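Q: Sequence in, structure out?
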Amino acid sequence: MPKRDKDAEATTPSDALRTYHPVCDAIALILQPYAEVVLHDLASETVSYIANNFSKRDLGEPSLLHEIDFKLNDRTIGPYEKVNFDGRRLKSVSAVLRAPDDRAIAILCINIDVSHIQSAIQVLSAMSTVSIDQGKPAALFKEDWHERVNEYVHGWTTKRGLLIADLTRAQKQQLVRELAEDGAFSGKHAAAYISKILQMGRATVYNYLRDTKA
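A: Exactly. Output:
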C-alpha cells in the first residue's frame, strides 16, 4: 500500500486560500460597511470565504463565475455593475489570484454598495436645482451688482480654466478692463468689492482702471 503524503493531504485548495482571508477582512474593514469581499475557489468553483457578508451567500455554494464572464487568462475583471438581492446597486471588481506557476486558483471579488451614494446624489441634485419658474425674483436681484460681478468673474475664470488665486498681473488687468466695459464699476463701492474678490489692493484696481481709460 503506497505511503500517504501527509502534507499534501493536509493542504487542500480551500486550506491554501486561507492565506487570503486577512486580505479580504482588511479590504472589508477599511471600506466598512459598504464593501463585501468574496473569495471564490476555482478548484471547486465555490464560495470559499466572505468578509462583511451583505449578499447573504453561503460558504460552499456555487460561484456562478459565468455571470462575470471569467476567462482563465484574465488578471482583473471589471469594474462591473451588480444588483444585490434586496435591490441595492453594487459596483464590483474582481482580481484573479494565481499560484507561483501562474495557474489561476481563486478569484477575489470586491462588491461596493453604491446605493447610498446614488441616494445622496439625488438629494443633492434636488436641493441644488432651481426650476426656471422658481428662479431669482426680478425685483430682488435687479440692483444686486454684487451677484452680477460674482457671476461675471466666475464665468470669466471658468471659461479659461483658471483660479482667481492663480491669475497673473496681465490677466487681472484684462479682467478689470472687461468688467469696466461691462459696467461693473457703476455700483457704489464696486472697486473695493472687486479688489477684494480679485485678491489685490484697491489702489491697484484704480491703477488698472486708469490704464484702461488711457
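The beta strands are 35-41, 46-51, 76-83, 89-98, 104-113.
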